[in-house]
Design goal:
Blueprint lengths: L4 E6 L3 H4 L14 H13 L3 E7 L38 E6 L10 H7 L4 E7 L1 H14 L3 E5 L3 E2 L3 H15 L1 E3 L1 H8 L7
Helix pairs in contact: 2-6, 4-5
């Protein structure tokens, strides 16, 4: 049965959450419990879950490296999922490798979503002002309704996270409380 709502979880990998990794920041841990709640709700309702994760090719130059250090190369010690956040093996939960900030850029995300009848995305993860915002902006451009649960995203640059949330809410989607996103992920009447 086509599914109207999907969860896109952005970069819940060790690079951002494990102390000592280049992209780590202490406040990243603050989003883990809200992300667990979203993931549990999506799984319970058998929603499509997309784990959009940085995956760069080892030893090959990548345009992103002009702006940020080499990170998240396939097979390195930064690219593993945070415990409990790996795809769980069900067909409706997929890993989506990305080489740019947006989960839409040069991936098959739009095709996947359209084939599954998805029209609404709940987008959460790190960092609000980079990968989350880029994904939300591209989702809007592709015609999706987008919800960003405020408690389930943040950044090591809080002022930029807040500015991004303001822009998202004004121009690209809706910044909502966690409970509203959980309600949207819950089964609707007629669903199992």
């Amino acid at each position: 049965m086509p599914d109207d709502v999907a969860l896109v979880v952005v970069d819940v990998i060790d690079a951002f959450f494990e102390p000592g990794r280049p992209a780590y920041y202490p406040a990243s841990a603050d989003v883990l419990e809200p992300l667990r709640e979203l993931l549990a709700a999506a799984r319970a309702a058998d929603r499509l879950v997309v784990h959009a994760v940085e995956r760069h090719r080892p030893g090959l130059p990548d345009f992103e490296h002009h702006k940020i250090p080499v990170h998240c190369e396939i097979g390195d010690d930064q690219s593993s999922f945070v415990e409990g956040f790996a795809p769980n093996g069900r067909p409706r939960e997929v890993e989506l490798p990305k080489r740019r900030y947006s989960a839409f850029h040069s991936t098959d995300l739009d095709l996947l979503l359209r084939e599954q009848g998805v029209r609404t995305l709940v987008v959460a993860g790190v960092k609000t002002n980079v990968c989350v915002r880029a994904t939300v902006q591209d989702a809007f451009a592709a015609g999706y309704e987008v919800l960003v649960p405020r408690e389930a995203t943040n950044s090591n640059r809080p002022h930029l996270a807040e500015a991004s949330l303001e822009d998202i809410d004004r121009y690209f989607g809706s910044v909502v409380p966690l409970d509203e996103a959980l309600t949207r992920l819950a089964p609707t009447s007629g669903e199992p």
